[in-house]
Amino acid sequence: MLRSLVRVALLVAVLYVGATVGFPYYQYVMMKRAVEEAADVGVARLGAMRKGTLGERMASGEVTAAVTILMQARAIRLGLDLPAQGVQVLLEPDLLRVLANWEAEAKIPGYAQRFRFGVEGRRVVDH
């Protein structure tokens, strides 16, 4: 009887710790998808408005704003605090890179572990 009670208690403890520590990794996987989606949106917006040097600068600002808003909205749905400076949109001559960096915390009574995550989405820009 005592042995089965210990096993059940141990199983519950392992499941609790697994769920607590596993949730930040679930958020990571979902944010990875969000970064890829944001890169697609950025390339689509960029392709629709790219016109010369001045247009490229204006497009870069608008794409950065659109991607940042999209990323923050997705982070809120996942329960993440993603500040605007945690999202970077880099426009190179033939490549659009979207980067997101954030921290998540797993709290177990008496212990807290911070995790740092970073994801990158790359898309080729057609001229």
Short recap of the structure:
The protein is of the alpha+beta class and 127 residues long. The protein contains two helices and three strands. It is 59% helix and 27% strand.
Structure description:
Helix content is about 60%, strand content about 25%. Helix 1 (about 1-50) runs antiparallel to helix 2. Strand 1 and strand 2 form a beta hairpin. The model has no long low-confidence stretch (mean pLDDT about 85). By secondary structure, it is of the alpha+beta class. It has a 3-stranded antiparallel β-sheet with strand order 1-2-3. The protein is elongated.
What class do helices, strands and sheet pairing give?
alpha+beta
Describe the strand arrangement of the main beta sheet, using strand numbers: 1-2-3
Q: Major sheet, described briefly?
A: 3 strands, antiparallel
Structure summary, number of beta strands: 3
Report the mean per-residue pLDDT as an integer: 84
N-to-C terminal Cα separation, in Å? 72 Å
Radius of gyration: 20 Å
